[in-house]
Write a structure and sequence with these properties.
The protein is α/β, with parallel strands linked by helices. It contains 17 helices and 16 strands. The strands form three sheets. A seven-stranded parallel beta sheet has the order 3-4-2-5-6-1-7, sandwiched between helices. A seven-stranded parallel beta sheet has the order 10-11-9-12-13-8-14, sandwiched between helices. Strands 15-16 form a two-stranded antiparallel ribbon. The structure holds adenosine monophosphate (AMP). The site of adenosine monophosphate has 15 residues, from helix 3. This is DEAD/DEAH box helicase.
C-alpha cells in the first residue's frame, strides 16, 4: 500500500486516483531513502515503475516547504524527447492536487516559446540535456537553487554522447541538493565516473540483473538468408502471431523507411519512427499507437527509447541490436507490468556472433524457432576445425525443431568448456557492446 510511505496526503490522493494499489519493487526500495533526502543510484529496468519511485519523493519534498515560485527547484534529465514528454505527463498526474507546476524543455520545440516558459519559472523542469544546455548558455536558465536533480536513463544518456552536457548541467546545481540517478543497466566506466562525480555517498539499489529481465517475455531467434527473407518473416509474424501491438526495430533509418514502405504496400496500418522524423510526426506516431489506431510501429532505437505503450506485446528485431543493453532496452517494451510478450530476433549470417554474444551477456539462451514455410538455407554458423572440415551448426538443447532437421553427422555439442567464464565482457563490453567499435551511436541524438 502506498500509505506505508510518509507521503503528503495530496500525493496519496493522486496515487489513488491513478489506481496504483501496490507499490512496485523499485518503489518499495527507493521511496523511503529518497524521502530521507539520500542520494540514490538505482538500477531498474524500463517499465518497473521507476518514474513514480523518484517523482513522488521529489514532489513530497517540494510540497513540504511551499515557496513562491521564483526558482527552479527540481530538474529531471532524460535522453529523449518522448521520454521527457512521458515523464512530464507522469509528474503532472502526480502533482494534480498540488500547487506544483512543471515545464518541458526538449529539442524540436520553439526556443523562444521555451524561454518564455522559463521566465515563468516552473517548480519542476523536465528536459533533454542538449536543449537545456542551449537555454543555459543563452542565459535563460538558472539552476543554482535546484533541490532535487534526477538523471533518468543515465546509461542511455551516456550512450547518446550526453556525458559532458549532463556533467555541466549537474555542475550548475550549485546549492545543496539531492541527486537520484536511474539506469536500466549497471553500465560501465562512463557511468561509474558519472556516479562518482554527481552523487554523494549514494545508496545503490539494484533491482534487477539483466538476466532476470522480462520474465514474462519469450525470446526467440529465427535465422534468415538475407534482408528480403527477413521481410518475409516479418510479414509472416505479423499475420500469424497474436498480438495487440507490435514494434519492429531496425538499426538504421534507411532500413526503417524501407520496411515501413513494404508494410504499407501490403495494407498494414503502420507508423515509422526515427531521428529524422520531425516532432509532429513522432508525436502523432506515438499517440496513434497508444490509442490503438495503429498496431505496428517500425522504429530505430533512439526514436523508440523509453516508449511506454500499453499492450505492446510483440517486438521483432529486424536487425540485431549492437549491444546487450540495447537488446534489454528494446525487449523492455514488452511484458510490462507483469504482462506477457514475445521478442523475435531475425538472424542472418552477419548477426550470429552478435546474437550469441548477447546471449552470453544476458546469460540466457534464446529459443530457436523455424517457420516451416519460410525456412531458408542459413541455419547458423558452420564451425571450421583446424583441419578445415566443417563440423556443423551450433546447437542448443532447446532447439528441438531445428535439431531434428539437422543431419545427425553434423550435429555437435555446444562447446562451453574452453570458453572463458567471463567471455561476455570480452565479446560484449561492459554495456554489452558488440565487437564492433561503437564510439558513436548510428543515429545521432534525437535532439
Ligand atoms: P515506468 O517504469 O515508470 O515507466 O512505469 C511503467 C508503467 O507502470 C507506467 O504506465 C506507470 O504508470 C505504471 N505503474 C507504475 N507504478 C505502478 C504501480 N504501483 N501500480 C500500477 N501501475 C504502475
Amino acid at each position: 500500500m502506498f500509505s506505508q510511505f510518509a507521503l503528503h496526503e495530496r500525493l496519496l490522493k493522486a496515487v489513488a486516483e491513478l489506481k496504483f494499489v501496490e507499490p512496485t519493487p523499485v518503489q518499495t526500495a527507493a521511496i523511503p531513502p529518497a524521502l530521507e533526502g539520500r542520494d540514490l543510484r538505482v538500477t531498474a529496468q524500463t517499465g518497473s515503475g521507476k518514474t513514480a519511485a523518484f517523482v513522488l519523493p521529489m514532489l513530497n519534498r517540494l510540497m513540504g516547504d511551499a515557496k513562491p515560485r521564483v526558482v527552479i527547484r527540481a530538474v529531471i534529465l532524460l535522453p529523449t524527447r518522448e521520454l521527457a514528454q512521458q515523464t512530464l505527463k507522469e509528474v503532472e498526474r502526480f502533482s494534480q492536487f498540488t500547487f506544483i507546476k512543471s515545464g518541458l524543455i526538449t529539442g524540436g520545440e520553439d526556443f523562444k516559446v521555451q524561454a518564455a516558459m522559463l521566465r515563468k519559472v516552473p517548480d519542476v523542469l523536465i528536459g533533454t540535456p542538449g536543449r537545456l544546455l542551449e537555454q543555459l548558455n543563452a542565459g535563460n536558465l538558472d539552476l543554482k537553487n535546484v533541490e532535487v536533480l534526477v538523471l533518468d536513463e543515465a546509461d542511455r544518456m551516456l550512450d547518446m554522447g550526453f556525458a559532458e552536457d549532463v556533467q555541466r548541467l549537474a555542475g550548475e546545481c550549485k546549492g545543496a541538493h539531492q541527486t537520484m540517478l536511474f539506469s536500466a543497466t549497471s553500465g560501465g566506466a562512463g557511468l561509474r565516473e558519472m556516479v562518482a562525480s554527481v552523487l554523494r555517498e549514494p545508496q545503490h539499489l539494484q533491482l534487477n540483473s539483466v538476466s532476470q529481465l522480462n520474465e514474462g517475455t519469450r525470446q526467440q531467434i529465427i535465422t534468415a538468408d538475407h534482408n528480403q527473407h527477413k521481410e518475409q518473416l516479418v510479414h509472416w509474424l505479423l499475420a500469424n502471431e497474436t498480438y495487440q501491438k507490435a514494434i519492429i526495430f531496425t538499426n538504421t533509418r534507411v532500413q526503417a523507411d524501407r520496411l515501413y514502405g513494404r508494410l504499407v504496400a501490403t495494407d498494414h496500418k503502420v507508423f515509422v519512427l526515427h531521428g529524422e522524423k520531425d516532432q509532429k510526426d513522432r508525436k502523432l506516431a506515438i499517440d496513434r499507437l497508444k490509442q490503438g489506431g495503429v498496431k505496428i510501429l517500425v522504429a530505430t532505437d533512439v526514436a523508440a527509447r523509453g516508449l511506454d505503450v500499453d499492450g505492446l506485446d510483440l517486438v521483432i528485431n529486424f536487425d540485431m541490436p549492437r549491444s546487450g543493453d540495447e537488446y534489454v532496452h528494446r525487449i523492455g517494451r514488452t511484458g510490462r507490468a507483469g504482462g506477457e510478450g514475445l521478442a523475435v530476433s531475425l538472424i542472418c549470417h552477419g548477426d550470429w556472433n552478435l546474437m550469441s554474444s548477447i546471449e552470453r551477456y544476458l546469460k540466457q539462451s534464446f529459443e530457436r524457432r523455424t517457420i516451416k514455410e519460410l525456412k531458408g538455407t542459413y541455419q547458423g554458423p558452420k564451425k571450421v576445425k583446424a583441419s578445415g572440415k566443417a563440423v556443423g551448426v551450433k546447437k542448443k538443447k532447446t532447439d528441438k525443431k531445428t535439431e531434428k532437421k539437422a543431419p545427425a553427422k553434423t550435429a555437435t555439442k555446444r562447446k562451453t568448456a574452453n570458453r572463458p567464464k567471463s567471455d561476455a565482457p570480452a565479446l560484449v563490453s561492459r554495456d554489452g557492446l558488440a565487437p564492433l567499435k561503437r564510439k558513436k551511436p548510428t543515429e545521432p541524438a534525437a535532439e
